Amino acid sequence: MDHSNHTTLLQAGGQTAISDRMRELLARAAQDHVYEQRTQGAVLDEIRQRLEGMEWLLREVRERELGGLSGTLETVSGRLDDIAAKPPMWAEGLAQHVEAVRDHVDAVGEQVDGVDSRVESVHERVHPVLELPKLRADLGIVSEGVEETLSRLQSVLEVTDGMTQRMGEFTTRLAQVSAGMEVAAGRFNRIDKSLAELNGRTDRVEGVVLDLSDGLDERLAATAEQLTASTDRVSVKVDAVEQRLTSRLDDTEQSLGTRLDDTEQRLTGRVHDLSGRVDSRVDKIDGRLVAIDSRLANVDHRFETADQSLTDIGTRLQGVDARLDGFDTRLTSVDGRLVAMNGELDARLTGHDGRFDALDEHQSETAARDEDRFNGLDTHLKSLDERLEAAEEHLTTRVDGLDAHLTGLTTHSEQVGETLEAVSRRIGQLPEALAIDERLGELLDSHRADHAERLAEAAAALTEAVSSRPDREALAETVSETVTGIVEPATADLNKRLGALEETMLALAEALLRPTRAKD
User: Fold this and answer.
1) Which of 25, 206, 265, 424 has the most CB atoms in a 10 Å sphere around its CB?
2) How far apart are CA 76 and CA 56, in angstroms?
3) SUPFAM superfamilies given for it (predicted)?
4) What is the distance between the alpha carbons of residues 71 and 78, in angstroms, rounded to a whole number?
5) What pLDDT shows up at residue 8?
6) 452: left (phi over 0), alpha (psi -120 to 50) or beta
7) Considering only CA atoms, which of 338, 417, 447 is closest in space to residue 116?
8) Would you tell me how many other CB atoms lie within 10 Å of the CB of residue 66?
C-alpha cells in the first residue's frame, strides 16, 4: 500500500501567515510610535505657545503695572520726604501763635507789675496821712477845729472805704481776668486734645506707610514735643502770673486792711485822748477864768496862729484830697486800661481760638484727604497684589500641570522607547529563542520517522498476514478504511493544536507590542 498521503498530512503549514502577522504588528507599532511622536510634538508646540503668551503677559504686567506702581511709590516717598524735611505750615503758624500769646502774657505780667508798683507808690503817698496826729499843737483848745478835722478825717475814711471798694472791684476784675485765663487754659486743653487727635491720626498714617516714614516719626514726635513744651511753658507762665497777681493782691489787701485798721485805731485812741485833754483843759479854763481875761491878747494871737495852722492843715488836707482824687482817676484809668486789655485779650484769644479751630478743621480735612488717598492707594496696591498673586498662582498651577504633563509625556515616551526597544529585542530574539521552524521540523521529522517505522512495520506485518489470507482484497479495503478513519482525526487534531499555538503566539506578540497611549 502507498501511505505517502499520510506523511504529507503531518508536514508543517502556514509559516507565511505568522510572518505576515508579525510584520503587520511591527508596522502597526511603528505607526503608533509615529502618531505618538506627532501628538507629543503638537502638545509641546501648544505648550510652548502658551508659555510664550504667559511670558508676554508677565512682561506687559512688569512694564506697565509695576512701572506705574514704582512711579506712584516714588511720588509718595518724595512727598513724605518733603513733609519730613519741612514742617507743615500749620505747625509753624501754631508755634508763632503760641509765641505771640506768650509775649502777650509777659506784657500783661509787666503791666500788672507796673500796677503793683503804682499801688505801692500810692501807699507811700498815703503813709504821711497816718502821721497827721502828730500835728496836735493847740488842737485841744479849739473844739470846732477838732470837729472839722474829725469830719475831714471821716471824709478821708469814706474815701479809703471807696478805695477798698474799688480795690474789691479791681479784685473782681482780676478774678475775671483769672477766669479768662482759665478759659484760655481750657482752650489750650482743647488745643492739646486736638494735638493728641492729630498725633493719633499721624500714628494711623504712620501705620499705613511705616516702611516709608522712619525719619518722619522722629521729626513729628520732636515737633509734637516742642508744641507740648511750648504750651506747657505758656501754661506754667500763666499759672505763675496768676499766682503772683493773686499773692500780690492778697498781700496788698491784707497790708491795706491792717494799715487802715491801725490808722482807725490810732485815730480813735488819739481822738479819745484829745477829748480827755480838752475836758481837762476846759476844767482848767473854768479854774483860770481870771487868768484868761489877763491873757486875752495872747489867746487872740494864739487863735490867729491856730487859724493859720488850721488853714495850713486845711490846705494840706485839700492837697491830700486832690492827690486822692488824682489817685482815684489813675485807678479809674488803670481799671479802664485793664478792661480794654481784657477785651483785647479776649478778642485775641477768640481770634486765636477761631484760627486754631480753622487749623484743626484744615488739619482734619488734610488728614481725611491723606487717609482717603492712602486708603485708595492701599486698595489699589491690594487689588494689584491680589491680581499678581492670582496670576502667579494660575501660572504656577499651569506651569506645574504642564511640567507634570511634560514629565508624564517624557516618562511615557521613555517607556514607549524602552518598550519598543524591548519588543524589537524580543522580536529579534523570538526566532532564535523559540526556534519554531527547527522545533516544528524536528518534531515533525521525529513523528514522521516514528510513524513511518511503525507504519512500515505494521504494513509488513499486515502484508504478510493479508498475503497469506484468501480474502486479502476485502481485508485491504477494510484496513484502508480503518487507517483513514484513524489518521484523518489525528491530522485534524494536530492542525487545530498548531492553529491554537499560532493564535497564542500572536496574542503574546500583540500584548508585548501594544503601547499605552497617554491622554491628551
Assistant:
1) 25
2) 29
3) Tropomyosin (SSF57997)
4) 10
5) 46
6) alpha
7) 338
8) 12
Q: Is the pLDDT at 360 greater than 60, yes or no?
A: yes
Nearest to 178 by CA among 414, 365, 34, 186: 186
Q: Is 345 exposed, middle or buried (0-12, 13-18, 19+ CB in 10 A)?
A: buried
H or E element at residue 205: helix 143-208
Cβ neighbours for 386, distance < 8 A, ≥ 6 positions apart: none
pLDDT of residue 55: 75
Q: Could you tell me if 398 and 58 are in contact, meaning their C-beta atoms sit under 8 angstroms apart?
A: no
User: Is there a contact between 413 and 40 (Cβ–Cβ < 8 Å)?
Assistant: yes
If you compute the radius of gyration of the chain from its CA atoms, what whole number of angstroms results? 69
State the Cα–Cα distance between residues 73 and 380, nearest whole angstrom: 12
pTM: 0.21
Do you know the residue count of the chain? 520
DSSP character for 1? -
The end-to-end CA distance of the chain, in Å, is 70
The half-sphere exposure of 261 on its side-chain side, counting CA atoms within 13 A, is: 6
Tell me, rounded to whole angstroms, the distance of Cα 377 from its chain centroid. Answer: 13
Q: Which three cell numbers stand for residue 410?
A: 517624557
Place of cell 503695572: 65
What's the rounded Cα separation, in Å, for the pair 206 and 370?
11
- The mean-pLDDT minimum among 237-241, 292-296, 515-519 falls in 515-519
The residue type found at 227 is: L
Q: Quick count: other Cβ atoms within 10 Å of Cβ 424?
A: 13
| Other CB atoms within 10 Å distance of the CB of residue 263 | 20
pLDDT averaged over the chain?
66
3-state DSSP of 100-145 = HHHHHHHHHHHHHHHHHHHHHHHHHHHHHHHHHHHCCCCCCCCHHH
Q: Within 10 Å of residue 236's Cβ, how many Cβ atoms?
A: 10
Q: What are phi and psi of 105, to 5 degrees?
A: -65, -40
- Closest among 442, 338, 514, 329 to 10, alpha carbons compared: 442
| Nearest Cα to Cα of residue 216 among 322, 420, 78 | 78
Query: CA-CA distances (angstroms) from residue 338 to 258, 332, 437?
Result: 26, 10, 140
Owner of C-alpha cell 505517502:
4
Count the alpha carbons within 13 Å of 489 in the hemisphere toward its beta carbon: 5
Residues whose CB falls within 8 Å of the CB of residue 266, separated by 6 or more in sequence, listed in order: 130, 133
DSSP per position, 216-271: HHHHHHHHHHHHHHHHHHHHHHHHHHHHHHHHHHHHHHHHHHHHHHHHHHHHHHHH
Residue type, 330: R
pLDDT higher than threshold 50 for residue 1: no
Give me the pLDDT at residue 519, please: 42
Q: CA–CA separation, 210 vs 31, rounded Å?
A: 67
